Amino acid sequence: METYHLVPSQGGWQLEKQGHTKGIKFFATKREALEFSTSHVRKNTGSLRIHKENGQFEEERTYPREIDPPSPG
């Protein structure tokens, strides 16, 4: 399963594939970046790690959802 990161970059947002040096696509806003990234990861199956403006990890989403790891507890 591939892992993608949605990260702040040069005054906007960038979708990156883990392990690759070149970003997939640059966006002016996080909203448009999230819409594209969600669709892209759904088509390609994988995990999307969403970061905050300060670069810290915020949330992880896996597509398709049925391959999400089980919640503890």
List keywords for this structure.
single chain, 73 residues, alpha+beta, 5-stranded mixed beta sheet, 21% helix
Give an overview in words.
The chain is α+β, with helices and mostly antiparallel strands. Helices cover 21% and strands 41% of the residues. The protein is built from one helix and five strands. A five-stranded mixed beta sheet has the order 3-2-1-4-5, with helices on one face. The radius of gyration is 12 Å and the shape is globular. The N and C termini lie far apart (24 Å).
The count of DSSP E runs of length 2 or more, i.e. the number of strands, is 5
Backbone CA Rg? 12 Å
In the predicted model, the low-confidence regions spanning at least 5 consecutive residues are: none
Order of helices and strands: EEEHEE
The biggest beta sheet is recorded as:
5 strands, mixed
Number of helices: 1
Q: State the end-to-end CA separation.
A: 24 Å
Side-by-side strand order of the widest sheet: 3-2-1-4-5
Helix content: 10-25%
The whole-number mean of residue pLDDT values reads: 91
Query: What does the overall shape look like?
Result: globular
Assign the structural class, choosing from mainly alpha, mainly beta, alpha/beta, alpha+beta, or little secondary structure.
Answer: alpha+beta
* Strand residue percentage: 35-45%
